[in-house]
Design brief:
The complex is a heterodimer of chains A (92) and B (568). With 92 residues, chain A is mainly alpha-helical. Chain A is 57% helix and 0% strand. The radius of gyration of chain A is 21 Å and the shape is elongated. By secondary structure, chain B is mostly helical. A two-stranded antiparallel sheet of chain B has the order 1-2. In chain B, helix 6 runs antiparallel to helix 7, helix 10 crosses helix 17 and helix 20 packs antiparallel against helix 21. The chains are: A mainly alpha (92), B mainly alpha (568).
Chain lengths: 92, 568
């Protein structure tokens, strides 16, 4: 016996979803850009020591390197560097 | 004639346009394909490219394109009588605006969601891209100046709108905080927000705020113009979630409420059109109907600004290519309905012809104030609300439209100034760029009169610039269709018509500004005239090249880099 598949959301939930989309969509890009700018700044702080800039908090940021490496390639290209500026990271 | 009959005829024309003509455009001209993978899917990133339900996307598109312009344009243009304005709005929506907006969506979707600015660079050449930047800069400059004057006029003529106008900022600030800081339920916030706005309208109606004749040495109008620019400058620099986003949202909801109030009142009151169908006794100094009608009503008949919205954001969110018909064409129909409502309000909202003639005593005299007065009378007859309260509702509606457009206009123009600075090797900060925008806008308002009324004088110039942008978009569509060897008449006829009327209107106004020795507007007119000639030459060359090029296979990629499109 087949079970009827139903939309789990009722009309109110669908209305709320529609209104939220109506609210956020026009400014989605603005928020995404702001978030990316913040991440870029964070990346510079984490990578400062590797890039040869003395970093007083490198003791803490070094633990974050494996996390930011995944986003490293996109970041250095956004910063205008076509290839990786770090010898230790050959992402491209 | 009864206004209800006119409303029914107008709505029927636009409905038929959607049912028949848009179907023809979608199937025969643009050949929309439900299986084509739109950029929202191929480039899906959760930011710009997001497949969106067509009804929600239509809501975005419609509220982005609908501002005060489809109210102001028809409200000025009925001085020639209601029939010409009615015909231009209905036929313009059906054969010009719908085709243009749907086409801009299609062109952008077929080019990975690229904007009309980028497409003009690809199809018209590098000059096309430069031309686009010049036109956008002028358009934004005039939008800010014109809408500042529209709002200041309304605040002076309808002092009951002062409290809701500025109180709407408090409502928007509260909505922003409630959603982002307190994470409240959006449905509840929306209901409370709209209710608070209407409570402010009732309060404003009880407590009108009239400024003295002069404030700080400025007339009341001039004072409001300066305050509005200062406010817009501050608003544009605040984080968007604080003010602009909730303000756009509340205004979007208010747009639907306002349209329902206006058309509901017409349905109940069925007022008679007191203005002449064709006004043969226009006041002295009124310019000739041809070509001025076609640039006085831009938004509501055809507007280049819609192409920017279509290709800027809507095309990136289109779930299926066939949705373009509903989002693009029906978006234009929505704006046409707003313009039709403005025509009815300004011609059927007066008791007698003499009352109407007293309001329309000179060109640019009726305008949005007539919309508020006439529309207020209709709402009073239809819904039984007091005349003053009805007028306050419509004035607030018009102000919110103009103010949200002005907020965005100042912000966008700030980006244009910063980009222009980068091209010139200058790094211009946010504050300095905003200051430049404000000085230019205030300069334009006061350049044509010490009372800051310049914004209204340039209204037809704003229309010509808007139509010029539309002509640019249509020429891109023409090139694309010619390359595919499809029929091109539905695009070329409107393109030629709009270009000729724009050029003609610019020449007429050039003479007028020269006679008035209004050198600021004379120079602006000249710049737009040169840009128009530039469009004609560049578009003509691009179309000529497309005709000579080998036919493009039907299923070929539309990317010019792949099909060998000419690039300067």
């Amino acid at each position: 016996m087949t079970e009827e598949v139903r939309d789990p959301d009722g009309p109110l939930q669908r209305l709320a979803r529609g209104l939220r989309e109506f609210y956020v969509a026009p400014y989605r890009r603005t928020f995404a850009r702001a978030r990316r700018d913040e991440e870029d700044l964070f990346m510079i702080v984490v990578l400062a020591e590797s890039l040869g800039v003395p970093n007083p908090v490198s003791y803490y940021t070094i633990e974050l390197l494996p996390v930011v490496y995944e986003r490293f390639h996109d970041w250095h290209r956004r910063m205008g560097m076509q290839t990786s500026p770090l010898e230790t990271v050959a992402c491209c | 004639m009864n206004s209800l009959i006119l409303a029914v005829i107008g709505i029927a024309m636009m409905a038929l346009g959607y049912a028949l003509y848009s179907k023809f455009l979608a199937t025969r001209l643009y050949r929309l394909d439900a299986t084509f993978k739109t950029p929202a899917h191929t480039q899906r990133d959760g930011v710009d490219f997001v497949p969106t339900n067509k009804f929600i996307l239509w809501g975005h598109h419609f509220t982005s394109v609908a501002g005060a312009a489809p109210i102001v344009g028809p409200a000025v243009a009925v001085i020639w009588g209601w029939l010409p304005a009615f015909l231009w709005v209905t036929l313009g929506t059906v054969f010009f605006a719908g085709m243009h907006d749907l086409g801009a969506l299609w062109a952008s979707v077929r080019h990975k969601g690229q904007s009309i600015g980028t497409l003009s660079g690809r199809y018209i050449g590098k000059q096309g891209r430069n031309l686009f930047l010049v036109v956008i800069f002028l358009l934004l400059l005039m939008v800010n100046a014109a809408f500042a004057v529209v709002i200041s006029d309304l605040l002076v003529t309808t002092p009951t709108a002062v409290i809701p106008t500025w109180g709407a900022l408090v409502v928007a600030l509260g909505v922003g905080q409630a959603i982002y800081r307190f994470k409240w339920n959006l449905i509840a916030v929306s209901i409370v927000g709209v209710a608070a706005l209407y409570a402010l309208i009732v309060l404003g109606n009880q407590v009108p705020v009239e400024l003295p004749e002069t404030v700080l040495g400025l007339s009341a109008n001039a004072f409001w113009v300066v305050v509005l620019f200062l406010y817009a400058g501050v608003a544009s620099m605040l984080p968007v979630w604080v003010l602009l986003q909730p303000r756009d949202y509340i205004n979007g909801l208010q747009l639907f409420v306002g349209l329902a109030i206006l058309y509901g009142s017409v349905l109940i009151a069925t007022p008679t059109m007191v203005a002449p169908a064709w006004n043969e006794a226009v006041p002295a100094g009124t310019p000739s109907i041809v070509p001025l009608l076609f640039v006085t009503i831009a938004c509501g008949a055809i507007s280049g600004f819609h192409g920017m919205v279509s290709s800027g954001t809507s095309s990136k969110q289109l779930d299926k290519e066939t949705d373009a018909r509903f989002v693009g064409y029906f978006g234009a129909v929505g704006e046409g309905l707003l313009a039709l409502g403005a025509i009815i309000a300004t011609t059927a909202g007066f008791r007698t012809l003499a009352d109407w003639e007293a309001v329309y005593s000179a060109f640019n005299e009726g305008g949005v104030a007539a919309f508020v007065e006439g529309g207020g009378n209709i709402v009073n007859s239809g819904l039984g609300l007091p005349t003053s309260l009805s007028a306050t509702i419509l004035a607030t509606m018009a102000v919110l439209f103009a103010a949200t457009t002005m907020d965005t206009g100042v912000r966008l123009q700030r980006f244009v100034v910063q980009e222009a600075g980068e091209l010139a090797g200058l790094k211009i900060g946010k504050f300095v760029a905003t200051l430049v925008v404000l000085v230019l806008g205030i300069g334009l308002c006061f350049g044509a009169g010490a009372d800051g009324s310049g914004g209204m004088v340039i209204w037809p110039l704003f229309g010509t610039t808007n139509q010029l942008l539309a002509a640019l978009t249509l020429s891109i569509l023409a090139v694309m269709l010619i390359r595919k060897r499809r029929r091109v008449t539905p695009v070329v006829v409107p393109m030629v018509f709009v270009t000729v009327m724009t050029l003609y209107a610019l020449v007429v106004q050039l003479g007028q500004f020269y006679e008035e020795q209004n050198w600021l507007l004379f120079v602006m007119d000249l710049v737009i005239l040169i840009a128009s000639l530039w469009v004609i030459v560049a578009a003509g060359r691009a179309i000529g090249r497309a005709r000579k090029s080998p036919p493009e296979p039907e299923d070929a990629s539309s990317d010019p880099a792949e099909v060998g499109e000419h690039r300067d």
